[in-house]
Write a structure and sequence with these properties.
Elements (H helix, E strand, L loop, with lengths): L1 E8 L4 E6 L2 H10 L6 H5 L2 E10 L2 H12 L3 H9 L4 H4 L9 E2 L1 H13 L1
Antiparallel strand pairs: 1-2, 1-3, 3-4
Length: 114
């Protein structure tokens, strides 16, 4: 199991990434430790906006590559309707991606507690 995600940073920029364990990865971004991405160390994250689950890290990496090629406007449209991943990224057709809104909501609850 692997995850593909989009987060918004405090400066309004988007960061797209992949993870085997999304909760651990988001904690790494928030804590800005050694395992944190260089980008999110310089641009602290604000919230998880979109999350998809897939079967392998290789498929998640293909999704990450495809999303990173999208314009900001298309990323915003994808965030608004995450179910349309394959429409925005047709090269992913046939790969198993499932939107995980439940985990996005749980992450937002974690942020409101801190």
């Amino acid at each position: 199991m692997a995850f593909l995600y989009i987060i918004v940073c405090q400066d309004g920029t988007y960061y797209t990434g992949i993870a085997k364990d999304i909760e651990v990865r988001l904690r790494e971004h928030r804590e800005k430790g050694k395992a944190c991405a260089k980008y999110t160390r310089a641009h602290p994250i604000k919230a998880l906006l979109a999350l998809w689950q897939t079967d392998t890290l290789a498929n998640a990496a293909k999704g990450e590559y495809a999303i990173k090629k999208l314009s900001r406007k298309k990323k915003e449209a994808l965030i608004a309707d995450a179910e349309q991943l394959l429409s925005f990224c047709p090269g992913l057709t046939g790969l198993p991606f499932t939107v995980r809104r439940d985990m996005i909501l749980a992450d937002r609850e974690n942020w409101s507690e801190s």
